[in-house]
Amino acid sequence: SLGAGLLLMVCRLTLGKKGYEAVDAVMRERVEALMPLRDRLKELVDRDAEAFDRVMQAYGMAGDSEAEAGARREAIGEAYAEATRAPLEVMRLCLEGLERAPEIAAQGSVNALSDAAVAALALHTGLVGAAYNVRINLPELPRGETRQEAERALADWPARAEELCTRARQTVDERMEP
After folding, report:
1. pTM confidence score
2. Closest Cα to residue 58, out of 50, 66, 112?
3. Which residue of 58, 108, 144, 174 pairs with 76 in a disulfide if CB–CB is 3.0 to 4.6 A?
4. Which residues of 145-172 are buried (b: 16+ CB within 10 A; e: fewer)?
5. pLDDT value of position 63
6. Nearest Cα to Cα of residue 152 among 133, 172, 166, 131
7. What is the pLDDT at residue 90?
8. How far apart are CA 81 and CA 84, in angstroms?
């Protein structure tokens, strides 16, 4: 959420400024795209905490009889699936923000370049942190769509995030040089 908010700030500090007229329309589009992204990332903090609470509740279920043990296993599997969906969405949204970071770093106001770099770093860190949450849940996930999505995301997204973060930071570094 911080990373998306910082990218928003860079866009807003660029809008209407002399010398940036050519990118005004692009910055307006980025503002419109980044606002719901920032807001959704904020919401996912609570959703992630609630999902973890459901995991703990499922572990607390009785498991004395075979029927109870089966219901408990099923509840634990579904709770882990839900606890994985929130960080998966965080990963997706952070990647979405990172996909905009190099362009914003290249076209945004030079007075906000450091914010563009920090935005990329925050989004990258958010994705990596969410990936750890997905990874720790993976052994407990039942076979199915959520597990497959988690495996695909873990295989592809962290490397893509690293690449985008590096591109954004390199752009900032180049634009900051005297």
Report:
1. 0.92
2. 50
3. 58
4. ebbebbeebbeebbeebeebbebbbebb
5. 87
6. 131
7. 97
8. 5
Q: Are 163 and 95 in contact (CB under 8 A)?
A: no
Q: Is the pLDDT of residue 15 over 90?
A: yes
As a whole-number percent, the residues of the chain with pLDDT over 90 amount to 90
d(CA 85, CA 89): 6
Structure tokens at 92: 């997706």
Report the distance separating Cα 140 and Cα 146, nearest Å: 11
Question: 71-76 contacts: CB < 8 A, separation 24 or more?
Answer: 76/140
B/e letters for 87-126, b = 16+ CB within 10 Å, e = fewer, are bbbbbbbbbbbbebbbbbbebbbeebbebbbbbbbbbbeb
